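Incident review: delayed structure delivery

Summary: a single-chain prediction request sat in the queue longer than the usual turnaround. Root cause was a stuck worker, restarted by the on-call engineer. No data loss occurred. The affected request and its eventual output are reproduced below so the record is complete for anyone auditing the incident later.

Affected input:
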Amino acid sequence: MEDRQPSGRKYRSKTTLAREALTAAIMNGDYSSGQRFNVRQLADDLDMSITPIREALRFLEAEGMVVYDEHRSISAVELSEADATEIYALRSLLEGMVTEWSVENSSDEDLAAITRAHENMLNAVQSGADAAAHGCNREWHFAIYQSSGSTLAMEFIAKLWIRYEWNSIWQVPGRLEKSLAEHEGITNAILRRDAEMAGRLMREHVGGGHMAVRDYWVLKKDPNTDGTGFLK
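Output delivered after worker restart:
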């Protein structure tokens, strides 16, 4: 029988808690690509001993989120533009297909969760809470994918999401607002139970994310541009 906490919820070890915290931090952009981790500082930040932090980092290494170099230094994995292109190609195919499954399989409760996640992002953007909007973006995407009923597809999508510093694209001017408008179109198609339209719009949305990543690389190489290759 599994150990359980007094509340009745499933027990989670310190390693699991550390793994979840570090995964969220990397996906939220708190650690940029190539940034080195200070294990002692992480232990202090999470109020844990070093052991569960090290164990959590080993899990993240296996998942491709961090890398150990020859000096045993640990850093957030740094992917190339070619890596990002391949990841986005896979995401477009998989997430478009799973969105269609969501339309076919989602319950009324699932639709309510998708709508609520979209409204949360809308409110965050309108209030200027960009950091909160980033989290709402992920909440919306995964509310859709979870409602598809495919555990296996969810696992593959999650692995693709954790392989890249997605929040870097929000540095591209106008991307957050454009993404929100695309979310609205997809949400409306899902609510209308239009699987073909929802899947197509999701593929276009992910493709737009890929374009934003390319713009981000332009901006990163030359801060004097506006992120689209043109001078400010």
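Verification: The two ends are 62 Å apart (CA to CA).
Action items: add queue-age alerting; document worker restart procedure.
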